[in-house]
Amino acid sequence: MTPILTERLILRNWEERDRPLFHRINSDERVMEFFPFRRDRARSDALMDRLRAGIRQRGYGFSAVEIAATGECMGFVGLHPTTIESGSTEIGWRLAPEYWGFGYATEAAQALLSFGFETVGLAEVISFAVWNNHRSTAVMRRLGMRADPAADFDHPDIPETHPQLKRHVMYRLSRSDWRSR
Fold first, then answer.
1. Mean predicted lDDT score pLDDT of the chain
2. Domain count across the chain
3. What is the pTM of this model?
């Protein structure tokens, strides 16, 4: 992956130095509030390895995000193929809590939407979240994504033991809508 630069951020592939932060965000109760599980270090490392390999293969994915001025990795924002809708690409994010509220997720996601639509040639990008995950849906709206209530769904990977996490809302952004903004 060629790094993508924004005014404050660098989006890049994962590096060995990112492992502690990656594990921390994947096991943090606040970050993972809308997920039915937390990852231990071994599972977190395995996921980071899969994400890194996917980025090498496709040229994009859930990418590490670092602050350009300090080199601190804060989490990830990325475009990733999803099985929720066959052939679709989702945009998603997960940042350590100390980086919430500064517009980093939106800034990184805007750069990735530009990359996805202009370089990769995606026709549409989707995003989805648990119905009451207001922080994530606020980012989706700031990106210009539109709610698609007809496509809301019960996530097939959420176990019945967590019914409060099953219902997900769907947001979409087409290339033409992105360009018209």
1. 97
2. 1
3. 0.95
